[in-house]
């Protein structure tokens, strides 16, 4: 597998553009009365006009609301919800001049974690929306082919996965997730942990010759940090113009031990210091990494697929690629330039 790299400035400062904020919020995850008061205070302090408000629904988790906000002239859309709401809004906003500001309100808050944004400081998050600076990040697009040969296109910001993680999400009890958060995933993990079935697929990375592979799980990551300080892909970056491919191929207990050692110890502990990074070992048989800008993959049969922590049904094939720097995200103004 081959790698390519893209270098570009990731921070911009446009103080001349007209300012209008919109909030796209999931009513299940936020206290709307408290949120309105906090937004009004920041809007007044910044001298912006009255903020627009759009509520998501089960039928429309954010795409329609984002379109309405853009049509109304919003320059910043504040996303108050979980990873699914963020992904839905980004699906519409990427490639436009509108920025996205995050008000983490979900279970995982994966994009916010990878941007190292505050997860439990709503005041700072809202201040950033009105007074922060813009950072350009990459967006991954994916065409998912279904068993009936229909194809639907989506966006993801964190990770797409086939195998263990997708099956785990498919088995997660939504009611338990709402009450117990990440503990719900533990129950689901136990349910699928005994599944030793393999993914069989053909793939082509970066337009190189097609190859065949058997694996337990394959994930394509735009970034690599997960909850509980798990660094699945320690070298992944949101603004390098690349995605990272992770393939899990454990053979019994020894293979899983290799994976846990790499992910928990090497990625999660050693990679945190310059000296520790020197102690990291090379690639192991059970866990392989690669980078790229385009991946085409066809499975032997339908398999569960997930995007940014949400199940997206089953796929028989997919094509995914990177649009470098196509989404603008608001970050605190004291972020390193």
Descriptive overview:
- It is a single chain.
- The chain has 337 residues and is α+β, with helices and mostly antiparallel strands.
- The chain has two domains: 11-137 and 327-331, Rossmann fold (3-Layer(aba) Sandwich); 140-325, Tumour Suppressor Smad4.
- Helix content is 28%, strand content 34%.
- It has ten helices and 17 strands.
- It has helices spanning 32-46, 63-71, 83-93, 110-114, 122-131, 164-170, 174-180, 183-193, 252-267, 274-278; strands at 11-12, 21-25, 52-55, 76-81, 99-104, 133-145, 151-156, 159-162, 199-205, 211-215, 217-221, 225-226, 230-231, 243-248, 287-292, 294-307, 310-331.
- The strands form two sheets. The chain has a 15-stranded mixed β-sheet that branches. The protein has a two-stranded antiparallel sheet with strand order 12-13.
- Helix 2 packs across helix 3.
- The longest helix has 16 residues, at 252-267.
- It is globular, with a radius of gyration of 20 Å.
- The two termini are 32 Å apart.
